[in-house]
Amino acid sequence: MTSKLSTQHKILDAAQSLFAETGFNDTSLRQITSLAEVNLASVNYHFGSKKELIQAVLQRYLVVLMPRLDQEFTRLLASQQANNLSQVLSVFVKPLLELNKVHQNGTRIFLQLLGRGYTDVQGHLRWFFNHNYGRVLDKLVLLVQQACPDLPPGELFWRLHFSLGTVVFTMASNEALAEIAEADFNEKVDIEGVILRLLPYLSAAIAAPVSTVTPISHTAPLLAGEGR
Amino acid sequence: MTSKLSTQHKILDAAQSLFAETGFNDTSLRQITSLAEVNLASVNYHFGSKKELIQAVLQRYLVVLMPRLDQEFTRLLASQQANNLSQVLSVFVKPLLELNKVHQNGTRIFLQLLGRGYTDVQGHLRWFFNHNYGRVLDKLVLLVQQACPDLPPGELFWRLHFSLGTVVFTMASNEALAEIAEADFNEKVDIEGVILRLLPYLSAAIAAPVSTVTPISHTAPLLAGEGR
DNA sequence: TTCTGATTCAAACGTACATTTCAAACACCT
DNA sequence: AGGTGTTTGAAATGTACGTTTGAATCAGAA
Questions:
Q1: Which is the most buried residue in A138, A226, B6, B60, by most CB within 10 A?
Q2: A215 to chain B, minimum CA–CA distance in Å?
Q3: pLDDT averaged over chain A?
């Protein structure tokens, strides 16, 4: 079963686990190479630097996930009928779960890494992500906008980021939560279970009625475009 | 105006800003003491260690917030009529905003710190938090349970943690989000604005109908257990 | 085999970190 | 003023980090 893996592969496998568990900055190359059973210098030999290793770890999943999401988004945009929010969010499920083909527990690991990327590093990974895949997410914004025509663009912006936070934080602390859930409620919940629990939560949240109690002067937003 | 501050106070003020901005592990005592314009050794003299400094920074807010929340929860629990979810969540607003009395931008800083505490450190801060203030949060769980009697306890557990993720992640990246929001939508949003936007989002999310959808993965084989 | 480029290895480099040390400076008492 | 306990200061300690180095080892072609 355990075929002979290249050094690069062993590094990536060890790195993703440690990165997901401990975060990027709090995982040392020595931990990684020790777990991977390779020489310390091989990381810099094969990847150049720790920063590039982090990107390589993420890219392994992103190059699979993002084209897949793009394809789903494009399909939904092409269908003339308006899609409801639940349908839009549901298209995430299959592409995300297919990351388990990239690596065992790939879905969980990727989402944890995504969470780490948003909270650990200062801007750098956020830029990398938006720069490479921003156009795909623009389609998602468009779809949600169509599904929730009554939602002002500014409100939608915030709610999408709220939702990103929900997902990312949940995955970052997924292990601890799953443990508690099993201990307290006798419910064994895997990553698919969490995703399926997230869907109705996020659907209801994003489509929630807009609050009427606003202490701030309510100026009509003119500019659209999620750019940046 | 700028009265003479004690060394301890200067350290706490510098530390909370840097911790909120960069995270606990990625902020060095040298940065803190440099910003506070005190000697490096004074941190260990006054607080013992970096870990204890982190706790002291958090405690300054927790000792104000948690009794305040406890009081609100108790009040709501005492009222015989059942409270709806929106009412329950609303009790967070005032206690949170009163943290601005503890320090300028105290609400934002505290929530950012809370986010850092949940994602940065390994369990340690989570334990500290649950150990000291777990009983207060139990009352919140009870209130939400009363407001959403149809929600199974297991589902409620997950949704409360989803909500924690929403808040915590939003605050961790609050500065970046607020900047984008202002640039793209011409909306100046302060911490109060974010909190008020969160309320309807979270109310709808927690009270969302429970999904009837079952996992698409085949139920027969349990290969690739997600545990560990 | 011998040559050659790619990979691995042990060791070291320079930097930054939290923490400790101990003498100097300070504040507050009588 | 002198004495005492508290606080600050500059410097050093030991550890860990990412990265670099140069020799040893390997794989494949001639």
A1: B60
A2: 8
A3: 87
